[in-house]
Amino acid sequence: MRILRIITVFVLLLACSNDQGQRNPYLQEIGFRFEINLNLPLYSPLTNPGNAVYIGAQGVGIRGVFVMNTGFAFRAFEASCPNHSPSPCSTTQLDGQTAVCPCENFEYSLFTGQQLSVPQDGNRYFNMLEYRASQSGNVIIISN
Fold first, then answer.
1. pLDDT confidence tier of residue 19, bands split at 50, 70 and 90
2. Which option is the CATH number for 30-143: 2.102.10.10, 1.20.1530.20, 3.40.190.10, 3.40.50.300?
3. Considering the entire predicted model, what is its pTM?
């Protein structure tokens, strides 16, 4: 029985991994909380699946946040391009269901946050920084 315990502990220790992925060096993660009332005309596009809105209010994300109604849930992503340090051209622009970085025309899906146009140059590229989005009735709470 003792050998079985030792083997179990050994297997559990080998199964553990400290690989937490690489943190994005361009974007500072900041804390905030913002409530979106879907009854307000400004946010009414979010009542339909497939629509996204840009929220550029002061203190919401680094350069604002895109909120997307995926049809199953709401998702929120940082509007600053994840592959550039914040600069005048690094705020992505809403283009339907994608966000486009005007610096190098990188495109990102607002359904998943994944970069759609990954250059084949061997460099490390990052997907969009996602924020927590939860719904309570007609209010969506975006936070980090």
1. very low
2. 2.102.10.10
3. 0.82
